[in-house]
């Protein structure tokens, strides 16, 4: 398949043109510190982290080069059956053709369109945290139990698990709107954490769904385009990807 694996983020950057940052939001600053010196003008840096703004990524990378090309995107798990829903917004220095390249890549695994960045939080709550598009096909094509498919999109302390708290604590229909809103709120909280570069030790550990504690009931993986390399950056040995 032409897939090359490596444990080095810096090596991945050196041999790639499009970099997908698919780690937890509070890990993004550390990934950028690690790879920043190797990011060049040819690179397109695509952040898939919930709540991490384009400006925060650009600010980090501008310590290494004056005009980093940054794109923010949000997708969902039905991409595994080519029924995903992806939206993206381009940064200050990203070119029109950079956005078109990302759209071409993501359209191969589902629907992809450009939106204003301030709409991505809402998409995170509605689509990224609740993949309606493609869910039925995933059930038909996958050998996994529906409950396992649900858990696959629940990263510890993330937006989805906060939304599921609503769904599992009461009636589904009456709580659906609150669940979407709760996920949007959590996405903005994650953005705030990322902007302040805060790390919660608990967020680095595996959290069981039934042990999640909410404050209120209102709630790099680097994937280059050229080589097809997939690298998972975990915060600690034995960690799991988002």
Automatic annotation (TrEMBL):
Coiled-coil stretches: none
Disordered, as annotated region: 217-242
Transmembrane segments: none
Presence of keyword Cytoplasm: yes
Keyword NADP set for record: yes
Catalysed transformations (reactions): L-proline + NAD(+) = (S)-1-pyrroline-5-carboxylate + NADH + 2 H(+); L-proline + NADP(+) = (S)-1-pyrroline-5-carboxylate + NADPH + 2 H(+)
Localization per Swiss-Prot or TrEMBL: Cytoplasm; Mitochondrion
Segments forming domain Pyrroline-5-carboxylate reductase catalytic N-terminal: 2-51
Ranges of biased composition (kind: Low complexity): 217-232
First-listed, main subcellular location of the protein, grouped into a coarse class: cytoplasm
Top-level class of the enzyme under EC nomenclature: oxidoreductase
Entry EC number(s): 1.5.1.2
Protein family according to the UniProt entry: Belongs to the pyrroline-5-carboxylate reductase family.
Name the UniProt record assigns to this protein: Pyrroline-5-carboxylate reductase 2
Organism: Diceros bicornis minor
């Amino acid at each position: 398949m032409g897939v090359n694996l490596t444990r080095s983020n810096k090596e991945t950057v050196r041999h790639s043109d499009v970099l997908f940052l698919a780690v937890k939001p509070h890990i993004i600053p550390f990934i950028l510190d690690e790879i920043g010196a190797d990011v060049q003008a040819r690179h397109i840096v695509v952040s898939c982290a919930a709540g991490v703004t384009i400006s925060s990524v650009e600010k980090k990378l501008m310590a290494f080069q004056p005009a980093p090309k940054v794109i923010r995107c949000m997708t969902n798990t039905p991409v595994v059956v080519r029924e995903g829903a992806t939206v993206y917004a381009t940064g200050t220095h990203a070119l029109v053709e950079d956005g078109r390249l990302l759209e071409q890549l993501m359209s191969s695994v589902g629907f992809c369109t450009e939106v204003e960045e301030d709409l991505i939080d809402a998409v995170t709550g509605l689509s990224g945290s609740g993949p309606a598009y493609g869910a039925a096909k995933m059930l038909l094509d996958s050998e996994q139990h529906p409950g396992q498919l649900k858990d696959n999109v629940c990263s510890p302390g993330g937006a989805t698990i906060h939304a599921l708290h609503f769904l599992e604590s009461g009636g589904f229909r009456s709580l659906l709107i609150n669940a979407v809103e709760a996920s949007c709120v959590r996405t903005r909280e994650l953005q705030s954490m990322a902007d302040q570069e805060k790390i919660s030790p608990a967020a680095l550990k595996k959290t069981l769904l039934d042990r999640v504690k909410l404050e209120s009931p209102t709630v790099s993986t680097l994937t280059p385009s050229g080589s097809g390399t997939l690298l998972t950056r975990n915060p600690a040995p034995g960690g799991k990807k988002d």
